[in-house]
Every structure is written in C-alpha cells, then in structure tokens.
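Incident log, structure service

09:12 report received: a user says their structure output differs between two submissions of the same chain.
09:20 pulled the input from the user's history:
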Amino acid sequence: MRELGPKKIPPAKEAAYIAVTCALLLGGQYVFSFVTGVEIVTLVLICFSYVFGIRNGVLCAVAFSLLRCFIYPFSPSALALYLIYYPALAAVFGGLGKIKQNVYDGCPAGFAVAVNFILLAAASLCAVCFALDLIKISKLYKLTVNVFLIVLCIICIVGDIAFNALFFLNRRGRRCGGYLKIIMLTGVACLCTVCFTLLDDVITPLFYGFSKLSALAYFYASFTAMLPQTVCTAVTVGTLFMPLTSVLNRMKK
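09:34 re-ran on a clean worker, output below:
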C-alpha cells in the first residue's frame, strides 16, 4: 500500500491563515511601536514561516510590508527595506522548518565545531573592538556602541556555553535535540535582526543621498535601536518559539 504524504492545506485555508497572521503582524507592530526596540513581528513571522513553509511565509511578509504603508507615513526607503528583508527572513525560516528533528537529535560534531567557531569569533571581535577602541565615533554614541559590544559578547559566550553543555548531554543520550534547535534558531533570528539594521544603514543613505559623514552618523545612531531589538529577539524567540509553533502545527492539522 502506498504511503500517503502530508495532507495539503486547501488554498482558501492558506489564504485565511496568511490574512490572520498578517493582521497580527500589523497589530503587533503598531502596539509595540511606542516602545523603542521592542517588536513582535520577527517572532510571529518566523514561527508562521517555520510551520507553513517558504511560500506562505513570503506571501505573508510581502502583504505585511505593503499594508503597513496604510498605517504609517509612506516612505519608499522603508518599503524597499521591508520588501527585501522580511520575505528573505520568511524564506530562511521556511527552509529551516524543513529540517527534521532527528538532525538536531544526532547533532554531528562538525556542526558543533561550526557553531563554536561562529559564536567565539563574534564574541572575540566584540571584545577586541571594545578593548582597543577600534570604532572611532563621537562621545554622543560612544556609550551606546560600547554597551552593545559588551552585551553581544556576553550573549555569544553564554550561548556557546549553553550549546556545548547541551551538545555533550545529547551525546550521552539525554535527548537535548529540542534545546539545541532553540539555541540555533534563536542565534539565526538575532543575526537576522542585526542584518535588518545593517541593511537599513545601506538603503536609507543611498536613497536620500547622504554624505559620507551623514551616512556614518546614521549608522552609529542605529545602534540605539539595534541593541534592544537584538535582546528582544533573543528573549522572545528563545522562550516563545516552541509554544507558538506547537499551536500553529495543531492549527495546520
């Protein structure tokens, strides 16, 4: 007897899921827009894309990017930023959603080495930049940048320690694959959050024709939003990703 594949969601149901999720993204962004650096869009979108796949995630991201123009003042640079970043974010986590749990359960040594290298390299880079004062900026942004470097260094070190502890426990048969998955997905989400700000630092100065000094000032000023956004992403994804994806998986069935 031929084994049946996973049940396909009817198009009407897919459209309903996309519409509801898009509404949640718009409402969540509006509610948290009054608090600098705190947002819920990343968490909701990556959970939806992880469960419902690349196509539905990208469609939801595009709809959200276009519809938000009816709530906030229209800005071509912001629209371009959203249309580039959020569909890419949805595609990344939609692809990660295809990885089976047994891959995390049997976490290969090569993967562990790669994770250690990335986390320790990021922590070392932040520590060197802070210790040697390699980022030359005005006193206005100095404290903000230094705080960001210290916090990012600590996050990388703590994440590396937690990953290695879970990796060795998993090797001893403690079944820590689920926790390893959360650490990896949280790290990817934080990296994407940093990339969002860096992408904005490129698109906005180019669109408005900033001078070199103005573009540099805009880049340093963006750190005031990057730090709380990155921390918020780490906390929300690390704690809420599994419960939300569990709920979405039940809805999908």
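09:41 both user submissions now match this output. Likely a transient worker issue. Closing.
09:42 reviewer note: Residues 139-171 form the longest helix (33 residues). The CA atoms of residues 205 and 211 lie 8 Å apart.
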